[in-house]
Amino acid sequence: MLAVWRAAMEQFEQGEDFVLATLISVQGSSPRHVGTRFLVRRDGAIVGTIGGGLIEADVQKFAAQALERGTSHRASFSFRGRDADSEEMICGGNAEVLVEFVKGDDELRKEIFMQIVELTLERRSGYFLSTVNMPVDGNGRVEHVLIEDRGTRTGEFPGVELAVHAIPDSRL
């Protein structure tokens, strides 16, 4: 995951828009776990993986659309039926992916992602909380908050206090 966050920092330094694709829901068998991400650059190059195969190829297409339109959206995938029988699919579940458009000049996201890199390199912990305000297969808004192990909070979204209170004190 560090490679994905570092790639995001490179995109910010260049002022280039990009997409973060995040596995947000899995039912049944999946090659990767919830929270796994990959980054898609405007030229189609990727950093990271959410499992490869057909799902990743489809997400890359959705990412190109997100970059063209400047929008974020959710996409649902099924690893069942005809597609699951292909050589590309090794699992038999369902997954939902957040395709998040990120502007290359978004200073708040840049700060949050930079702090994630620092926390990782310093082997510290924290919570990266996100709210996804959009219908399934619809466009919408994504907001983030990073809470470092020392209690420092960066970012804000409606209802974040409820999420913060749900975090066990022993984890911070």
Detail the topology: elements first, then pairings.
Blueprint: H1 2-14, E1 18-27, E2 37-41, E3 46-48, H2 53-69, E4 72-78, H3 81-85, E5 94-102, H4 107-121, E6 126-133, E7 139-148, E8 153-155, H5 160-166
Antiparallel strand pairs: 1-2, 1-5, 2-3, 4-5, 4-7, 6-7, 7-8
Would you summarize the structure shown here?
The chain is of the alpha+beta class and 172 residues long. The protein has helices at residues 2-14, 53-69, 81-85, 107-121, 160-166; strands at residues 18-27, 37-41, 46-48, 72-78, 94-102, 126-133, 139-148, 153-155.
Which labels suit this protein?
single chain; 172 residues; alpha+beta; 8-stranded antiparallel beta sheet; globular
Fold and architecture overview:
By secondary structure, the protein is of the alpha+beta class. It has five helices and eight strands, in the order αβββαβαβαβββα. It has helices at residues 2-14, 53-69, 81-85, 107-121, 160-166; strands spanning 18-27, 37-41, 46-48, 72-78, 94-102, 126-133, 139-148, 153-155. Strands 1, 2, 3, 4, 5, 6, 7 and 8 form an eight-stranded antiparallel sheet that branches. Strand 6 (126-133) and strand 7 form a beta hairpin. Helix 1 (2-14) packs antiparallel against helix 4. The chain is globular and about 45 Å long.
Helix content: 25-40%
Order of helices and strands: HEEEHEHEHEEEH
Strand-residue fraction?
Answer: 25-35%
Q: Which residues sit in consecutive blocks of at least 5 with pLDDT less than 50? A: 82-90
The general outline is globular
Distance between the termini: 21 Å
DSSP E strands, number: 8
Mean pLDDT: 85
Question: What is the assembly state of the chains in this entry?
Answer: single chain
How many separate helices? 5
Query: Largest sheet at a glance?
Result: 8 strands, antiparallel
- Judged by helices, strands and strand pairing, the structural class is alpha+beta
Radius of gyration: 16 Å
